[in-house]
Design goal:
Elements: H1 5-14, E1 24-33, H2 37-49, E2 55-58, E3 74-75, H3 82-114, E4 126-130, H4 140-148, E5 154-156, H5 159-166, E6 173-177, E7 181-182, H6 185-198, E8 202-204, E9 211-213, E10 219-221, E11 225-234, E12 251-260, E13 277-279, E14 286-290, E15 296-305, H7 322-332, E16 341-351, E17 358-361, E18 368-372, H8 381-395, H9 419-439, H10 446-452
Parallel strand pairs: 1-2, 1-11, 2-8, 4-13, 11-18
Antiparallel strand pairs: 3-7, 4-6, 5-6, 9-10, 10-11, 12-15, 12-16, 13-14, 14-15, 17-18
Helix pairs in contact: 1-6, 2-6, 2-8, 3-8, 9-10
Bound molecules: flavin-adenine dinucleotide.
Flavin-adenine dinucleotide is lined by residues 33-39, 58-61, 65-68, 70-74, 208-209, 235-237, 239, 255, 257, 299, 347-349, 374, 376-379, 383.
Length: 465
């Protein structure tokens, strides 16, 4: 079970949750496996479109206990992935997806207000910074490409303002995107659970799918019972790699997070005091924000690789890499030397080759759908839009969502094992070396750069690193 303080806090605030398990053979119009943001948004969109649908969610633990209840809470648009979108679908579709995702950032705030979800939504923007000289201007290529297409979602920010907003002069430069927010992720997940229940979605928790029978009417087998449905939707995130059809389509890596005791008067007034989301420009991404109770929450991406996509328990409990994460944080905020780190956690990221999610039919099966590959970027717009896409596909509607470029039956797979694992380790070590050298102002050698260049796209575009 996750150690994420977000999740513990949200569960405590929600009070005792009543969970149900399936018994005997149950039938449904639509069964969704996985009660994270994707599964919950899909269920909500389906019910909103057709309240008569009989929808069941099957969740192995409690809704929100996966990545959705333990992430950094950055709500950002797709603009940062514009290069990948352009490569996938061309300028028109890329602009459409980017624009809809920016709208979704605002829509999330409205949705939470309308449905009484108090998830500490703060629409204070995203600051993309450079924490080494090498990273300065990492965004230039992306901003130039966006500008070439008449798009200007980022604003230049004066370095002094970057320091003021972030509270540290280790941020040497940066650009700002106004259409971004932060949330308390587990409060959002449990809030969506409440909305889904209110709409009449049946949720079975502590009910892992143990076996899936593919067929005209797929059947999900759990311990005490099974659900037969006209349509089945796989919304299992990294755990979907247990399905052979999806195993090679993502690489499972960890993201690791620490949280401090609340800061009291440690930074000058006005510094880092709002809900701004901040990350730097490395592949071993440092990302950070504050929480509304004053804690510093700091994460670092790209840690543990899962051999053959086996998630097991490697992504539960406290982070085994907490010291490394803490060292990165202390390096950026040396003035907070006396602030203790009080907790850490880890979680799996379903990283796709191009950093974009994909939606389709499992092995081409018409009754089984899936969404996967959020690549550390699934809070807010991507899973909100994913919910609309899967709802449209499940209902068989022909609209902008079912025709969206992210619906793709073929995506580039990772190599077979053991080559994927060995390759991933070699690339990870090269990235470590590259970023260590760049941090100390040295230029990495050719081989290091070539190997590091093989890394799949991350939160910030590959072109930027
Ligand atoms: C540490 C960390 C930090 C992150 N930070 C950010 C961030 O700041 N911003 C951002 O945009 N993204 C971030 N992400 C990514 C983001 O959290 C995910 O992309 C998003 O939550 C994906 O939602 P999901 O519903 O697909 O997955 P999940 O929330 O993981 O949902 C999948 C669900 O499936 C369930 N499940 C698995 N197997 C079974 C089974 N056999 N039977 C039934 N149920 C099953 C799981 O228990 C889980 O609840 C982060 C991720 C991590 C781990």
């Amino acid at each position: 079970m996750t150690e994420a303080y977000w999740f513990k806090e949200a569960i405590a605030a929600a009070g005792p949750l009543v969970t149900e398990q399936p018994a005997g053979r149950i039938t449904a119009d639509i069964c969704i496996v996985g009660g994270g943001y994707l599964g919950l948004w899909t269920a909500i969109r389906l019910k909103q479109a057709d309240p008569t649908l009989n929808i069941v969610i099957v969740e192995k633990n409690v809704c929100g206990s996966g990545a959705s209840g333990r992430n950094g809470g950055f709500v950002t648009s797709y603009w940062v992935q514009y290069f990948s979108l352009l490569g996938l679908a061309g300028a028109e579709a890329a602009a459409w997806i980017g624009g809809r995702s920016a709208e979704a950032v605002r829509e999330l705030g409205q949705f939470c207000a309308e449905h009484g979800i108090d998830c500490d939504y703060r629409h204070d923007g995203w600051l993309w910074t450079a924490t080494s000289r090498h990273q300065i201007g990492a965004w230039n290529g992306l901003l130039a490409e966006l500008a070439r297409h008449g798009l200007k979602p980022f604003e230049a920010m004066d370095p002094a303002e970057v320091v003021r907003r972030s509270g540290t002069d280790r941020n040497l430069a940066g650009v700002y995107q106004a259409d971004a927010a932060t949330i308390q992720p587990a409060k959002l997940a449990l809030g969506l659970r409440r909305v889904a229940l209110r709409l009449g979605v049946k949720i079975y928790e502590q009910s892992a799918m143990l076996r899936l029978k593919r067929g005209k009417r797929p059947i999900v087998h759990c311990r005490g019972g099974s659900i037969e449905a006209a349509k089945l939707i796989i919304a299992m995130n990294a755990w979907a790699t247990r399905l052979p059809e999806l195993r090679r389509l993502v690489a499972v890596v960890s993201s690791d997070v620490i949280a401090t005791a609340p800061l009291v008067g440690h930074l000058p007034a006005g510094c880092f005091g709002d809900g701004i989301a901040i990350c730097d420009s490395r592949m071993f991404l440092n990302y950070w924000r504050n929480a509304t109770d004053g804690r510093f929450v700091f994460g670092r991406a790209l840690g543990h690789f899962a051999f053959a996509g086996r998630v097991d328990d490697n992504y539960e409990g406290p982070s085994p890499r907490a010291r490394e994460v803490e060292a990165a944080w202390r390096g950026l905020y040396p003035m907070l030397g006396d602030v203790p780190v009080v907790t850490s956690w880890t979680g799996p990221i379903d990283r796709s080759m191009d950093g974009l999610p994909f939606f389709g039919h499992l092995g081409g099966h018409p009754a089984i759908l899936y969404g996967l590959g959020f690549s550390g970027h699934g809070v807010g717009p991507p899973t909100m839009m994913g919910g609309r896409i899967l709802a449209a596909l499940a209902r068989g509607t022909n609209d902008e969502w079912s025709r969206c470029a992210l619906v793709r039956e073929r995506v580039e797979p990772f190599p077979v094992e053991p080559f994927r694992y060995l390759g991933a380790i070699a690339v990870r070590e090269a990235l470590r070396r590259k970023e260590r050298l760049e941090d100390s102002g040295q230029r990495p050698d050719w081989l290091t750069r070539r190997l590091a260049g093989l890394a799949p796209s991350g939160y910030v575009p590959k072109e930027a690193t």
